[in-house]
Give the backbone structure.
Amino acid sequence: PPHDPWLAGYGISYYYFGYVLLNLMVWLTGVAPGIAFNLGLAGIFALTLLGAFGLGYNLVRADVQRQAGRGVAMLFGGLAALFVGIMGNLEGVLESLQSKGLLTPGLRAFFDIKNLDQAPVTGSWMPQQFWWWWRASRTLHDYNFAGTVDQEVIDEFPFFSFLLGDMHPHVLNLPFVLLAIGLALNLLLRPNRRAEEGSEARGQEDGRDWRAAWAEIRGAFGMDGWGFLLYGIAIGALGFTNFWDFPIYVFLLTLMVALRIGLAGRGLDREGWLQIGLTFVGLTALGFLTYLPFYLSFSSQAKGFLPNLYNPTRFVQYFLMFGPFLVAAVILLAVAYARNGAPRQAVVRWLLATWLLPALFLLVVLIGGSLLPGLRSLVEQTLGQPVAAVIPRVLRLRLSTPGTWLAVGALLATLGALGSRVWMGLEQPPERTLLFVVALFFTALLLTYGVEFIFLRDTFGTRMNTVFKFYYQAWILMSIGSSYALYYVTTRGGPRLGVVAPVVVGLLVLGGLVYPAFAIPAKADNFRRDPTLDGTAFVAAGRPDEAAVIRWLRENTPADAVIVEANGGSYSDYNTISAHSGRATLLGWGGHELQWRGNYDEPGRREPLIETIYRNQDEKRIREIVEEFGIDYLILGPREIEKFKLSPQQQRSLQRLWEPVFETGSYTVYRWRG
């Protein structure tokens, strides 16, 4: 793997494929890194909108019953791009109402957005508080088990990420995610080869189920089996770029294979289940094997799963996050059920599954936690108290906030019952495009439903990061689904619903557009400053001496040089020199290293060594440290002097072992005398 610039001598323990691709463009073009950052971000934004537009457009064009023209397809393709990459959630409306003075204390308590009550009332519709737009990424509000301490939950959406300039893997993966959705659509739309060949060919393969299943998969993916390989490589790239997207889209592709079985006029027989299993296992294996070198060197902070016993999402906050999409899903289901219907027994079975199985899971965890020592320690780690003493409170918390559980469970059930019609051997199953969108909504809602009951066990110890990872993908899936839902309703909903429903969704979409309309000028300081593509310009403008050091290091030191500078906390201005020069430092932001590696062993060992280098007078000990880590240069500037409380005499004493090679203002760069 590439070298970790904030832990010299180690490889990056992160999903770095997106960064490699962008760096290839930097090497090919020779663009300065600061400019390349912003160009790369703009490029990802463009690819995201383009991918979303293509999906929305092609879904409409693939509707063989209506055969919509290009103009209509472009309209709904544009809506898909708007939903995915430009629209915000509805928290922006609350910010505007608060700024105007229209949000009463009762309403603030009802929505319970963290720190919204601290936003000033200015009389303007446009919020004026510094970084007010950050709160939209923290719409969900969790608490500890006692209900006394806030627990942060991240619920970003793509526009927030682009506004923040957040070139993290979840953003870099957006084009790959949209590619995966496009591949899923392509898979579902491909003709069913065996359905065309007829039952005679199918009968010849009876008794050889696994061979028949593989033959069907080869036909589904195309290119005589090579298509399956290409799918595996493409889907595997998701894991290399942002791992937790990988299993989501393996699931979606497997779901497409299951739907194809029904569209071929068959139920889920033995061969059908073999197809499903081979697809899931095969794509997973190909995705891992293709990028095996990455996984061999990767260390994750994820350590399994924990039950979410006491933090159900309040439905009002869930609706603030996904409101337009939820309404679009409901009206889609209303029209689809009116046209296709579904047996009442199927709906009831799905409701029992979505409502009762999670409840049964929580009861098993609580009861098992009371009886089984191994499970007890796991549950008590989550609750911080003995299991037997807290069961009544857990049940009370769950039963007092059932909105998301019931609403999302009901949506999942109705989607599942509609989609499962395809396996009933009907002469006219639902259209493929409708089935595809049902699958998108089903997958998205399943992701958001899952974090109501379980979350990834990581460094944070809460569901913060799990909600972040799953809600982000749910936003994308529901965005694509909602654009087609509006098309479907306007073309099939009749004179009333076909007009009223899009108007209702349109009003909610306008609410979602409040956020970008007000957040863009707020983030850009109302465009008071001259625009620039250089992402490092703020350093040159505010700290010219530091910028000169960065420039000198880039121009006069080898790319693999190791520096030492004062390390600091996350989101501080510490480690600016290593970050902007590209020269690895002994230790950067320790908190981020903890997140990336899942432990603080090596960063914790290095922290006192940095202070030793700057403050210790023991030349032998300093030499041992420098030689162990291969340190070439030492930075002495205001942060080092302040953090290590270096007197003028201590600063001068550094020259016994370090040779000054560059001085500018308050900074000196020293080279190891060796």
